[in-house]
Amino acid sequence: MSDFSRINEILEGSKTVIVAGHVNPDPDCMGSSLAVCSILRSMGKDVYLYRSDKYPYNGAFLENSDSASETVPDFEPDLYFVLDSAAPERTGEAFFAKLSASKSRKILFDHHRHKENGFYDAEVSDEGASATAAIVYRWAKSIGHVLTKGEAEDICFGIFGDTGGLRYASTDKEALFIVSELAETINYGDFCSQFFETLPENWFAMFAEVIQSMEKYRDGKVVFFATTLDQLNRFNLAIDEIDPFVEEIRRIGTVKIIFRIREVEAGKVWKFSVRSRGNIDCIPIAQKFGGGGHKNAAGFTFYGTLDEGRKAVLEIAETLDL
């Protein structure tokens, strides 16, 4: 168990709390934020839940999934509670401006690789945790909180997101234990259906187009694919709805590492996601471009043309020990 004594000490003296996660929230960010928000409210705290962007589409079934606001609050809380975002600037430009200027206490739960920089007054960070949601579970257990059905679903949603539904190498004994503990509470079959089986029909049409343009290198061990704003418009899909493309492509048996490039600003800004298997570390790759993440899942932003981006990642791919 992690030591939450300093976290709890700060919470005890706080009445108003703003809970926030990182930009483009993924399931772990969403689930962790919703669970913490609910637990804090059960403790009598006044909580404002902030999100910088839409939550993942398949999390719409979660209790209170529509309670977060994309408006940066105009009041000053006693405490900022940040989830899944060790780098505070990843909470979003507008929110980070408020966060960094504030004299209020700041605490963090996170599982990304980073060094403490003194920004937070207290943090529980564990790179070995399968998900930030697992840390939220530890905290809830440590204070004797009995998770509601909604909170249990939030935590399982977060763990599923960062372990690929308990399929990735990040799935550890703790993740399996937590999900097994909560399986009956959440109605496991219904939960899995909501998590995995809610793709819109247009998804398949766009995926077929992406597969046709996918590029393979080094005997199929390296895969590169890109998605554009034009495709999102033509197929009427949101960014979060195409995230499963990576999961499907990594099912190809030969694939060791995937470079996904998503167009952010027409022709000149691209978001790179890097996914790998086994001992291939994505973090040094992402760090070359100012990014970061996990060993098997990292990312960065690239400024330039698609051809320049392709060249940059393929130069890296040629140097990898596969």
Question: What does this molecule look like?
Answer:
With 322 residues, this protein is α/β, with parallel strands linked by helices. Helix content is 39%, strand content 19%. The chain has helices spanning 5-12, 27-42, 93-101, 132-142, 149-163, 173-186, 188-196, 201-213, 229-235, 244-249, 283-287, 306-317; strands at residues 16-20, 46-50, 79-83, 105-110, 122-125, 215-217, 222-227, 257-265, 269-276, 292-293, 297-303. β8 and β9 (269-276) form a beta hairpin. α2 packs parallel to α4 (132-142), α2 (27-42) runs antiparallel to α5 and α4 packs antiparallel against α5 (149-163). The mean pLDDT is 94.
Tag the structure with descriptive keywords.
322 residues; inorganic pyrophosphatase (n-terminal core); Diaminopimelate Epimerase, Chain A, domain 1; 5-stranded parallel β-sheet; 12 helices; 39% helix; globular
